[in-house]
Specification:
- Helix content is 21%, strand content 32%.
- With 492 residues, it is α+β, with helices and mostly antiparallel strands.
- It folds into 4 domains: 111 residues, Trypsin-like serine proteases (Thrombin, subunit H); 87 residues, Beta Barrel (Thrombin, subunit H), CATH 2.40.10; 94 residues, Pdz3 Domain, CATH 2.30.42.10; 89 residues, Roll (Pdz3 Domain).
- Strand 4 and strand 5 form a beta hairpin.
Length: 492
Amino acid sequence: MTQLNLKGVFACILSTAVVATASTAMLPLTPVFAQVRALPDFTDLVEQVGPSVVNIRTLEKVSPRQNQPGQMDPDMLDFFRRFGLPIPNMPNGPRQAPPPGHGQNPNQEEQPRGVGSGFILTADGMIMTNAHVVDGADEVIVTLTDKREFKAKIIGADKRSDVAVVKIEATGLPAVKVGDVSRLKVGEWVMAIGSPFGLENSVTAGIVSAKQRDTGDYLPFIQTDVAINPGNSGGPLINMRGEVVGINSQIYSRSGGSMGISFSIPMDEAVRVSEQLRASGRVTRGRIGVQIEQVTKEEAESRGLGAPYGALVRGVEAGGPADKAGVEAGDIIIRFDGKKVEKSSDLPRMVGGTKPGAKSTLSVFRRGASKDLTVTVAEIEPEKTAAKSSEKAPKPSESKMAQSMGLDLSELTDAAKKELKIKGGVQVNAASGLAARAGLREGDVILAVANVAVSNVAGFEKVVAELDKSKPVNILFRRGEWAQYTVIRFNP
């Protein structure tokens, strides 16, 4: 029975196949293997771009000392230092940086400090690398692929973007071609050339894993799975057209070595920085004086924004550009000069790339409607701190509503109001419970509760008494020079 059934099944399958073959015999067939692409060949790229990649060694002046057993090799010390790894305990400890004023010691000698990579930007000797490669170096040595060595001058370095430009006295050098980062696609093959662990002209390859990757730094990175190790820093990321699309800068690693997650600075951003460094030796960036954070789904829905996008303003610098333009804590900045702010990290890049003194348009979403404001962009400068009043603080007021929120409040003195340039508010003497969890602390000045201004403790008491405790309550407060925004939840 089993044998007959198997034959029947086989016959059925065979007849079906014959019918299917007959019915499709006249249809054009496309071979499956036509969609398979051959693996890339990087040999031509290496020959084309390889001569433009350089090795960079940095030296620092230290007081001479005897070579003691167990002292860590400088390159290995740089390995641990560069990637934030704990330095192993050694009998005599690692070599320490020389004390201030060491440059006046005639007995000092230059010792290797680190090794990195770079690439030739112009034929007359401009070379691009990472700022962290040359940071703190007393001397920079550039070695070309033909083994010629040059002492390089640091033209400028920008730590915020991790881009540096150095110059060697040479002509007729093979400069790289800069690629269009906007054409770069996720999944595209890319190649890196550099000096991992001091091994010059090492070539590794992989694909683009992601674009616009935020790592908490100023720039959006290109993420790849190209093997990048200490010494690769500052080297080029190259597309299949032989164009440089990025500068290899960082890796994610638990061991200190490559784990297939590498980050490169987009070349369009790097070029903008390098142009300023070559022109003036420094980078000028814009600022508008706001503290921001990401817009959550809950925030967007509660405000009627719909999709979560933009930058939520948590604080506004008093007297800063945004304050003068009318930006308020609690606003959501949704566009800058007509460009949509998809996420909060987009805004610092947009503003930073704007020339100080320029007038820009901010589109903010406030109380269910959008509003356009004109802001004059200022230059980034050190953060100001408010001077503290020497006048003795008044006796705290007893407020049951404030105490229920974990607040100990007092009236503001006339001198404090004058110093802060405000007409009213209440002083926070201590914060605990709900208020502390919301981020309030001693010294803050509460200006408004649930969008209602409070001029004194009695006014604060009245507003809080009328609140719907089942809903979050927004608090506008002043901390030093900054007006900020937070939310207190009675039912966290």
